[in-house]
Amino acid sequence: MPEPTLPKALAFDVFGTVVDWRTSVTRESAVFLERIGQDPGTAAAFADAWRRQYIAAMIGMKKSGRAFVPLDVLHREMLEATLREWSVDPGRIDEALLADWNRAWHRLDPWPDAVAGLTRLKTRFPIVTLSNGNVALLVAMARHGGLPWDAILGAEVSGAYKPDPRAYLRTAELLGIAPGELSLVAAHHGDLAAARACGLLTAYVDRPDEYGGAPAPDADYIQTWEWSATSLTDLADQLGC
């Protein structure tokens, strides 16, 4: 097969692709669970349950026609729902504690290859976020992890959450390029499939530990992507950076 044409810019999924949400949220949740008298040993299960709420929320937003709200708002709703699963009434927890717990998503650590890979990719391509995260969340995360973005584009820029086509097309529009000149970089086949359906190029980065070694929930969407890499530094090698 011929080599694909190089993109003019790279747009990155963030949660799971650039940062290790599960390890970070597990670590933070262990602290908060202990503070409210719950078993910190259940923190990994709590993190997984909180993330499952995210997937359900994205589907629910689309079906209900609910007006767009920032991901910080949804994360707080999901946190409270997860606490109820743990038989904990969030109304009985101090508001400052809940707010800080919700900001665990602002403090996610990058994967070990992420900063080096992004730094190399940035030498040849503009690198921006294409995430369902809101701007405040993504800015805090970038500062926490030293992520060298050229631009941080939260879901507010399109007023839509992926996999809504507006999220992908608006990002290309803001960069002043055609959809086919933008590549999404993601660890999720479903995200890449939606981007491809909008005309974007696609670069897959394998993150087998995203779910603690459990199978990814979107494996059924797998295709042959323009690029497939084991890390962001491997992708930099493939793209000549």
From TrEMBL:
Keywords: Hydrolase. InterPro entries: 2-HAD, HAD-like_sf, HAD-SF_hydro_IA, HAD_sf, PGP-like_dom2, S-2-haloacid_dehalogenase. It catalyses: an (S)-2-haloacid + H2O = a (2R)-2-hydroxycarboxylate + a halide anion + H(+). It holds the Pfam family Hydrolase. Catalyzes the hydrolytic dehalogenation of small (S)-2-haloalkanoic acids to yield the corresponding (R)-2-hydroxyalkanoic acids. GO terms for molecular function: (S)-2-haloacid dehalogenase activity. It is an enzyme of class 3 (hydrolase). Belongs to the HAD-like hydrolase superfamily. S-2-haloalkanoic acid dehalogenase family. Its EC number is 3.8.1.2. This is (S)-2-haloacid dehalogenase.
